[in-house]
Amino acid sequence: xxxxxxxxxxxxxxxxxxxxxxxxxxxxxxxxxxxxxxxxxxxxxxxxxxxxxxxxxxxxxxxxxxxxxxxxxxxxxxxxxxxxxxxxxxxxxxxxxxxxxxxxxxxxxxxxxxxxxxxxxxxxxxxxxxxxxxxxxxxxxxxxxxxxxxxx
Length: 152
Fold this sequence. Notes:
CATH topology: Rossmann fold
Radius of gyration: 15 Å
Low-confidence stretches: none
Strand content: 15-25%
Number of helices: 6
CATH architecture: 3-Layer(aba) Sandwich
Largest sheet: 7 strands, mixed
């Protein structure tokens, strides 16, 4: 299974650190050249690999960690997302309710990523919480997931 995080802001960094703590290889990408964030990826660990957006979307599971209004730009990276699972980490902060046409933001994202299996998750935790290793204090972290696709 190949994993990628699209978006390498605070949430993307925090998710990458969680993968690194488990030694899981992960691609990270933005719309920028990978060299522009290569040192930040290397600082997290050797399993975090900076890639171009075109390369990263080849992963089986893609964490969408961009601003909500940027998701259509990411969706253009592939003509068809069939066979991919998208973990939608976005929140539609500051987006007027009429913009998504009265639909939940996850429906808008699902329609934009034609053919993908969508799971909404990780968007209820702020980056500072996601960034912490819950095992440090002997704890665990609950992550709420929602999807109408049980297989995803």
